């Protein structure tokens, strides 16, 4: 041991009426003392020969009882002083660390103390972390960290966050982690090149990351500083939204956030060249269907299209500018007896071709604004990713269009990282509703990409921060590859699933009653998941948390932004 840590306050002693094992033991709480769930404790045992073993643990259960009572009704007699009894509290403690690693049980009567300072750092393995990222605060407002090596791909990667929608604050916690990574300086000078891609899937919650939160109270701001962070908005953010339906200029489709938002779409040439047709069928999970055979046959023909300057294409002599025209062109080739085998693939039944055509036509109303070459300067509508954080808003889109956007953006990012052949700079991907994009059953192009990210992204520097309401409905390999597991408020039925087997029974029960802002965090080095709280967001999470436009300044401020329309 390099240094002898200062000892914390004694709070009790190991009891002898319950078995003590190297993995868990009970401690009686002394008079005028208390232990609560998640407290970190320390004690020592002297071995024969004089060597000392330091034992650290976390309180996972606390009980109080009357000693001397036999019946439930004795409580009334004891309260009246008729029946003698002692009121005693005891805490169940799961061990986290032995130093040195001599795994012997604590002896009854051993003094138990709250771990503070260096002792707490050792109990939670913080002192051995070369680089650590603030991940929240304990119930006593002490910092909690996760090991960067299990986040950046050095020894592990990815974060999976589960919890009830609207209560578990999953996306907010994911953004807190991203903010902590960027602010903490754990990557040094190279860290300024790391980027985050965030999909906004609900309302406009993430469209104000660049605005400070006017509702942040001073006591919450101080909690950021206790973590070594500044309570501030994200300094470098760009926002992208789909084009507004029917708008010939492809203006961004937003409700309240207007200035500083660009619109995105893909040209007809990009659709043909990059095999984006497959993502129109990203929700087809029945492996018995023969859609993939038709999709690949059609994509092979679309690759032959010749590009025009405006992003349109010429294919088999026909010029195509808009998605409707392309769909009709493909359908004509598949319905023509002379060309259907060439375009759809041989030995494909007519029923499969008809089903493919129906689904293709069904995509037109939802995708025609996203696949087009009828707007000047299409390069201005490509998601540029010039800033550190890129928010892609898809909440206004139909689910099929959402899958298309997520699939295409991740597909291109994965290709870019593979071509670069280097892990740095890192790309953090924040994606909610993972059960929609990578469901447990079936297969789809998006699911395959997310599996690639989960299994190979570590070596490519792609870090997935995935969130979902129910981990039991997400592809197992994606969840299993997440080195950091986080749980917010859970439904009681979901809490009993095998996917949460890493949680002790008491923590599963607690997960059903946790308040927003409280999470259970599990990381590889620490054998006991820890309950942490994270501060109220220092960035605006909706329009009424952002400063008034006149305060924000800038030439593109809208004086009426944020005002609700009159009824």
Task: Describe the overall structure.
The structure is a single chain. The protein has 16 helices and 21 strands. With 567 residues, the chain is an alpha/beta fold. It has three domains: 10-128, no CATH class; 139-262 and 383-552, 3-Layer(aba) Sandwich (Rossmann fold), CATH 3.40.50; 268-367, no CATH class. The strands form four sheets. It has a ten-stranded mixed β-sheet. The chain has a six-stranded antiparallel β-barrel with strand order 1-2-5-4-3-6.
What's a concise summary of this model?
The protein is of the alpha/beta class and 567 residues long.
How are the SSEs ordered, and which strands pair?
Layout: E1 10-14, E2 24-29, E3 40-46, E4 52-67, H1 74-79, E5 86-99, E6 111-114, H2 118-123, E7 132-137, E8 143-147, E9 159-162, H3 170-184, E10 195-200, H4 218-226, E11 237-241, E12 261-263, H5 268-273, H6 291-302, E13 306-307, E14 313-315, E15 318-320, H7 323-335, H8 340-344, H9 350-367, E16 389-393, H10 399-420, E17 427-431, H11 434-437, H12 445-460, E18 462-468, H13 476-480, E19 484-487, H14 492-495, H15 505-511, E20 518-522, E21 530-533, H16 549-552
Parallel strand pairs: 9-18, 9-19, 10-16, 10-17, 11-12, 11-16, 17-18
Antiparallel strand pairs: 1-2, 1-6, 2-5, 3-4, 3-6, 4-5, 7-8, 13-14, 14-15, 19-20, 20-21
Helix pairs in contact: 7-9, 10-12
